[in-house]
Design a protein that fits this description.
Layout (H helix, E strand, L loop, with lengths): L4 E6 L5 H16 L6 E5 L7 H10 L4 E6 L6 H11 L7 E4 L7 H13 L22 H7 L16 H12 L1 E7 L5 H15 L5 E6 L7 H10 L4 E6 L6 H9 L5 E2 L7 H15 L7 E2 L4
Helix pairs in contact: 1-10, 4-10, 8-9
Amino acid sequence: MSAPVLLVVAHGSRDPRHAATVHALVRRAGSLRPGLRVETAFLDFNLPSVAGVLDRLAAEGVRDVVALPLLLTRAFHAKADIPAVLRQAPPGLRIRQAEVLGPSPLLVAAVQRRLYEAGLTPATRNTTGVVLASAGSTDPEAIAAIAPASTRGTTPGPPAGTTAWHRAVDEMKRTTGVVLASAGSTDPEAIAAIAETARELRRTGWCSVRPAFASASLPRTEDAVRAMRADGVRRVAVAPYVIAPGRLPDRIAAGAAEADVLADVLGPSPELAQLLVDRYEECHAPAAKPLATRAAG
């Protein structure tokens, strides 16, 4: 029997950067599993729609689908919107809904990757603070691969991946605060998941980590940055805990105006791509039960 089709279900946005980023992430995830058929669909604003993709798959004779919500937390879209549209699938399709992406150590690693790419390295020699949204990796090879060799205008640090470099990273974290800036939600489970990710990030050594939200919840990004400054944090960085660009990520960026470092969205990072594959595999395991099955006839 052929493996189920992986259907990645994204929210969608009027911002064209959103769909472009989603497609780049899905392509990267697909490259990790050669031969696996991967499709992308959107709940709103973009095409193809979830219903449209399911109709096409059924018409082609596909019988098994794993629907993966491209969401970091289990909020309304994962609990209501996606199950509702999946229940309208054509007869004969057996659909399993995978778990949302977070929390996961891979998300913590992806956030830290983005922080390093934004220039936050042991070579940085200033008194700035960090508003960040995730943790990182303890794998020397992974850290060495993502850390820039040097930062313009700063004193070069030890070679990446060396023992001296790791000591310098630890020292940098002790003077750096991170604001984990998510889109926001009114769902208590989603807010708790963000708080858990912030705690995991804090455990990797950052001197302070505060969650922040672009909507629905408080504090806002700019307020978390100012609170961190008031606490005496030397360097403040903002790490957007969002997958793709759009209106709310732009709001996070505006709120980071007083921060020293602003990382990029998670986007098509290697860690996020691997997490998509992992969630698919977990859902495809023999013990997993179908969420929705429409019998033919």
